[in-house]
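Worked Example 4.2. Consider the chain below.
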Amino acid sequence: MSVRAERFQDILNSLADGVYFVDVDRRITFWGRGAERITGYTEGEVLGFAVAHRLLAPLDAAGRDVCENGCPLAATLADGVPREMEVFIRHAGGQRVPVLMRDLALRNHKDKIVGAVETLIDHPVILAGHKSGPSGEFQALRDPLTGVGSRRFIEGRIEASLAELQRHGVPSAVVLCDIDGFTEFNRAHGKEVGDSVLAMVAQTLQRNLRGSDSVGRWDGEQFLAVLQHVDGVRAAAVADKLRMLVERSTLSTKGGSLHVTVSVGATMIRADDLEGTIVERVSQALASSKSAGRNCVTLA
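Applying the procedure from the previous section yields the following structure tokens:
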């Protein structure tokens, strides 16, 4: 590699965005450090991999495979037109990660397309709350297995949101997610795989909430999120998005790919609530989702 090429590669590796190059057959020829950070896949794992989108399996906001009706990267390689869309890619850990995906054709001196560069940019809404890193208080109230908040942490967020509603009229909602059939899953696959699934689900939830929202491990295989500045319609939509993203997350194991689903209950915080009445109502909503066949959302 020439000195000029090395310097160019160093510049690409210094970018926070995830940059990678593909040739005309969509084989990965360069995988930057930003791409490693965002996707969890190392250069050694992906270099030469044919069809990068099979690896990342990007979904649109409705949970559809973006390549179902034609791969945007393949289209840019074919016509040279830049493309951009918000997607949810599959992280090496199995969870779904929101990114802005940009495709740009690469041309030689004869203006012939010889490859493409795809850039993965952290979701702009998540970025505001994610870059600064967790505070010391959050670290002390962090669930060590999953990396999200502990029950004590999320109880504090419920109390704070209730106080904001009572004092300033700021609306908030609570969303409770429970992994379906987790006891049986643990029995079939073992505790180590079960712990990995807990982490996968937790990170899918956390990475797909706004910086102003909070999520914590509530009890065993249950996770509770507090959504700020939402109405009932928006709360239900966010809850269903989280449900869908968990369903489309994948944990790769020696025995193959594993999937789980979550049942979800959601409720708006009311001015006359206590913490106990909020938890009771959202738990009843979750129970309704379980009774309705699981892998669905109930708003109470």
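The chain has two domains: 3-122, 128-299. Residues 142 and 149 are 4 Å apart (CA to CA). Compare this with Example 4.1 before moving on.
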